[in-house]
Structure formats: structure tokens, C-alpha cells
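Side project, low priority. Logging it here so it doesn't get lost.
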Amino acid sequence: MNRIIRLFSSAVPRQRPWTWGDLVALLSVTVLVYAGTRLAFYAPAVIRGPEISLSPDVLPLYAGLSFTRMLIAYGMSLIFSLWYGNVALGNQRAEQILIPLLDVLQSVPILSFLPVVLLGLSAFLSQNTAAELASIVLIFTSQTWNLTFAWYQSQKTMPRELREVAAIFQFNAWLRFKVLDLPFATIGLVWNSIMSWAGGWFFLMAAEIFTVGKKDFRLPGLGAYLNEAANRGDGNALSLGLITLIAMIIFLDQVLWRPLLAWSDRFKLETLGSVPAPNSWFYDAWRKSRVVADWVRAGAGLALAPLARIIGLLASRPAETVDAEPARGWKTTVFFIVGGAILGWGSYLAIAMLARVSLQEWSQIGLGLGATALRVLAAIIVALLWTVPVGVAIGMNPRLSAWLQPVAQVAASIPATALFPVLLLGLLTAPGGLNLTAVLLMLMGTQWYLLFNVIAGASAIPHELEHTAKVLRLNKWQRWRVLTLPALFPYIITGLITAGGGAWNASIVAEYTVFGGKVHSVLGIGSAIAEATASGHYPVLLAATLSMIIAVVLINRFAWRPLYRLAEVRFRMD
């Protein structure tokens, strides 16, 4: 143990545990949450959404509406991830604010932020417009953080010799993004895109049906259909909805994700080809088709070239990180003064609202925070135990991947909230009761972040290293110790960061639920947030939300962030 501690402390550069960027990030999110909560007071007293039909005839329309929302949110997530990551990577001063802010943002509980967004938007927009925007925002926040972390991690762990080559040939920002940054990150981005869609499906039901007191927000869609079927106890409708969802997932896997995985294999950092390489019948058919080669490919190139250029410009950054402190002009000074004034005034108003929370309510929030932390820890430990070996098996064996990857994607994409009534029926009377059910639901919603990151890391291991391990006649344990685990380490840490944030988010639906006309809840911060939301007690909602955010930020700062720096310094493919 002492040897591990000495190795860890010598490999990780010493940094201050807190910077001024952490304070700015935390205050910014606090003011943002407070502003939405304050706007919620001006929302209409009664809101009623459209009726959700359970007729099988509406399923194609509902599925199309849900897919459109998912696609818009994913497009926003991808552009945001590339832009945000490169702004942070291209300037040290920006990185000091943006990376702590990213830690804070990914720790914001989505389901507690949703009523703030919904009620805030409904204060000055029509009900349908507010509900549509809020649903896209919710899906966006469930998709973007793991993409951003994956992009940032890939650029931080890029081999130095590749950066030196780009500098020698004097690549401009666009050329570097096109031929170096994006290809190197492609495998991780594709696997995390699959996970982002799975996360979007997970929160689809919450995004399309949400109730705050007498304010009933609902949108026609597949998530609303599943939710309504579960509430009515209509097994046939619930089965049809799940079949439709699974059919969509399998269709996307065959015509989008499998082709992208087969195409991304060309960007593996190796001189030997994958044996055998990932394959896709759809990708092979398109690549071999003369019609595609001569017509469709050219037309798609003309249509997508402007979009690709825009994404490249947004995601590009200078060839070298800016180390020198730039001169501070009058515009920067004015920005800091105005921004500081807004943060100061907003923080004062937020503190005034928090002062309305009683000591008893604060003590319940503290106890709930500890209880939820234990459930999150249990869920992460269980996820680590099975996702690492299974992910390595899938990622390092393309034939196995062809069979198991679609199964994993389907399992990850089925909303656990749709299966929650089944879990309640089976486990409510079992030892542990709702506590065990809450851990299982948190596990079902977060284990996939780890699994897909492990698969991405395993599939990116160069085959030269595997052949070298065979030549040296390393046994299985030696291969895991000197090759597999070091290569996977950055991907595991990325998965743990996003899985941890997802587990805290899932606690809101895991610890408080209405089933059979009765409320079932256990002590936890998620339960406190859900109860405050249902009763419209906005000061407690703000207090519980900020408590969860601070807890996750502390975990990221003192646990995951040092491990992230260790991955950057010691476990890069140099």
C-alpha cells in the first residue's frame, strides 16, 4: 500500500486543491439555479398538457417525435463538447474556469433542474414551447457531459510525438482538428455517443412527462406513452411501447453505430491491422455500392461540408497551449467587473432564499446526503466488478463485440424508470426493500457509462502491444497488470466521473416514487429533492440541489481529479 501511495504522489503533479475558478464555477451555477427558481414563482398556477393516447396507431408518430428531440439534443451535445473542450485546452486561464465549471455542471441533478427550467421558461413562453425546450435541455444535459469528458481526456492523453509532428508541419487550427485531434478521439467519441443516446433514452420518460403540483407538463412521444401505460397498468400498451423502443435501438445500431464503429477502426493508433477488424453489413454495402460512391457520397459531401467546417471552426484551437498571461484590456476588465457584480448580487439573493430553510430541514438534507452517498458507492463498486472484465472481453474481441455490443446497447437504452414498477413489485417486500431497489435502479442507469468507456479503451489498445505481450509470454495476470489496466486507466476514470454523476442524478427517481397510488420513499438527498419538487417548496429544492452539487464537486476534486491527472501524466500512449 505504501508503495502505491509513493508511486501515486510522485507521478501526480502537486496542485492546489481549490482555485479561484472553482469558486466562480460554483457561484455561477448557484445564481443560475436561483434565477430559474425565482422565475418559477411567476409560472401559471395551473398547467394541463395534452392527453396521451395509448392506441398502437400513434406509436410511429410518438417514436418520430421522440427521435427528433433526441437527435436535436445530440447535435447540440456534440458541437458543445468539441467547442467547450478545445476552448479549455487552448488557453490555461480559460481551463482554470471551464474544467471546474464542467465538474459542477455534470453534478447538477438533472431531475431537480428540470422543474426549474420548465417553470422558469413557462413564465414567459407558451406551455408547449417551454415543454419542448425543457425536454431538449434535459436530454442535452444527459448526453453532453460524458462526450465532453471523453474529448478532453483524448486530447490530454494524446502522444507527444503526434503534437510535435503537427507543430513541425505547422498545421493550422482547422487542419490539426481534421487530421489529428478528431481522428485520435474518434473511437472514444463513437462509444460515448452510443452511451449518450442510451442516457437520453433513460431520461426520455422524465423529459416528456413531468408534474409539479397542479402544473402538468407533458409532450406526445414514446417516453410519455411508456409512462402513461405504466401509470394505467396497461401491460399490452407497455409491451408495445418497449417493443417499439427496442426496434428503434436495434435499427440505429445496425444502420448507424455498427457502421461508425467499423469505420472508426481505421483510426486505431497502431501499425498492424485489427485481426479481425470490426465489420458492418450496412457499412460494407454502402462502401461497395457504385451509386453511393458516385452520387450519394458526392451529394452528402457537398451538403455536409459547410456543417463540418462550422464544427471544425468551433472545435479548433491554437496549435500550442497558451502559457503566457495575455494582456488584460479594458474589455476584459469591464467583463470581470460586470460579471462579478452579477455573481455577487445573485449569490446574495440565493443566500437570502436559503436562509428560509429551517435547521431541521438542513439536518434532513445532511442525513440524506450521507445515505445517498453510500448507495452511490455501492452502485459504483458493483458496476466496476462486472464492467471491466466484460468491457475488455467485448473491446478486444471483434467477433464477440458483434454479438454482445448490440445487446449491451439495447439493455442500456431501455429506460430503467419503465422497469421500476416491476422492480418494486418484486423487491418491495424483500429484505432491504426500497433501499435495495434504489441501488439497483441507480446501477441500471449508470453502469453503462463505465462499460462503454471500458469497451472504447480496450478496442483502442494497439495490437503491437498485444503481440509484444505474447512474445514476452506474459501470463493473464501480468497482461492485466502491465498492459490492459494501464491502457484502460484514463477511460475508467472518465467512466467513473460520468457514472458517479449519473448515479447521483438517478437517486431522484430511485429514492422517491409514486406506485399504486402510494408514495414510496427512503432517506436520501434524491428523495428530499423529489419531495420539495412535488410540494413546490423551492427554498428546500435549492438547498438540496446545491448540497448535491457541492458533494459531487468535492468527490471530483479530491478523488477523480487527482486520478485524472495521474492518467494524463503516467498512462498516456507515448
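Brief comment: Residues 1-14, 319-327 have pLDDT under 50 and may be disordered.
Revisit when time allows.
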